[in-house]
Input
Amino acid sequence: MKAGLLFLWLAAPLAAQSARARLEGRVPAASIAAIDSLVQVAARESLPTEPLVQKAIEGGAKRVSGDRIIKAVQLNLDQLRAAKALLERAGDRAPVTHAEVLAVVAARKRGLADSIVERVVAALPDEPRGSALHAVADLVAHRFAGDSAADLILAAVHQGLRGVRLLDVSSAAIQETQRGRTRAEALALIARELPNVPPPPPPPRATVLHARRPAAAPPPDEP
Amino acid sequence: MNPIDPKIHQALDGEIPRAALSAELRRDADLLERAAALLAAAPQEGSVAARVMAALERPLPPRRSRVVRWLLTPHAVVLRMRPVWSVALAAGVLLLAILPAPSGAPALGDEEGVAQFVARFPGARSVAVVGSFNDWRPGSIALEDPDHDGVWRGAVVLPAGAHEYMFVVDGERWVADPLAGRYVEDDFGRENSLLIVRPVAE
Amino acid sequence: MDVGGTLSDAEVVARVLGGDREAFGLVIRRYEPGLLRYATRILGSSDAAADAVAEGLVRAYRHLASCRDPGRLRTWLYRIVANRCKSQLARRPTADVSLDDVPPIVDPGDTEAALERAEQLALVERALMTLPPDKREAFVLKHVEGMSYEEMSAATGERIPTLKMRVHRAREALLRALKEYL
Output
């Protein structure tokens, strides 16, 4: 345990160093120190730092003022903290993994109430929650009630569906409403179909030949 | 429409025995069943088996024409929550099954997928995709419009998972992808589009 | 010897998913006649039906992994083909189908009984095509394909009470039409 803490304490300045280097020239110079200190705080609290650096760079790319960038980074730090607290409340043992923190942040950003997020998190104690949370968020974005959306996705999980297949479940329910069904009818219909979710409509196809890779992104700071 | 005696429905649905019907009702039930039997017995000409098996052998062609056709209809530039297409594209602006890769094409890891970006910006001089996957650098992923029809496309290898992004038109106008289907606030007063890339090895 | 006749749907699906593409031919042989018959009645054209069924089967193959309960393979296939049929119908300028498209079934070498049967079939087909597509579909699935209401619900995505209502209305309309012609 002590060695782990030591590693994290040592890792904090390293995270900060790499953040400074990435912020130089990308954000207003006067804001770098403040952003940097927020990144260090995140590192010391065992929170992912990459989202904070990304948010700052995004603000710089969008030509936002230094003050607004700092505010946005602070907001995102608060979101990371809230996500970590939610995971711990829902039963995840410390240290909670960065991937799960990011999944919860994304779900809350997409409008899911904490009660719904906690419910999904608690229902999947030993596995990644990202896809399930996004699937519920897809439904909520199309005005399905949060609890009903969670009911459907958790039923799908119970029937053995995982990962991106859960997104197919929410897509199927959304499509049924676009065919004229009420949301309640759509949910009931898709629930009856589980695990046989109708195949998604054929996605556009791209030739791998023309697929490019973006410039190398920095490595994630997963502990 | 003249409703028929409910007992006919009950008999044909197996809820009551035929014997419970009067002679006249039984005649009507028989007429319907004879009609169904004729339809069932009618020989079907031809088989699609050969056609289907041949189709399964062929590699799948790009489906761009379908997307382009949709884009060029009046409801092409759609904000979220429109027809099946917006959800379909949202779910599918992510993954595409991989064609046999000719040499020179990027090899994909198990935790990677290919995202195809498609957008309609008639009159634009350049369209770039900018997002968390390329450090929000406007220059690094440019879409192409080779036939100058205003439809810009590009395919990118990305790690599986969620990515926020926007289009940058003519180097200065930042626009969320109208076809994304998923959006999150960017904390700067606007919205980013969100895509979820499916891994190749599902 | 047709070994395929002894394999369950689950075994066939497992073979296909295991990489045996040829095994999908068993699925086609098993279900193509019913699917073609169904699609022909819905679309009123054997050519259109062949397109819908062929597209549907190709799609089913490509997404076979998502049919996690092969015990319901039949209704899953009907669901896919029903969607293809609906897409075709939606693309038509009107919902009317030319009766000329209904396939002729008279063989010049037929006996008189067969000819009479052929005429009766033509009458029934004409009566069937007067029904709106949703009621036509309901009648065909119930009385021609022999599905239970539960199976019909899985194949169409509609609720059972809705399907019962459609079947009842279809019977009423068909009976009236048949009595007029006969």
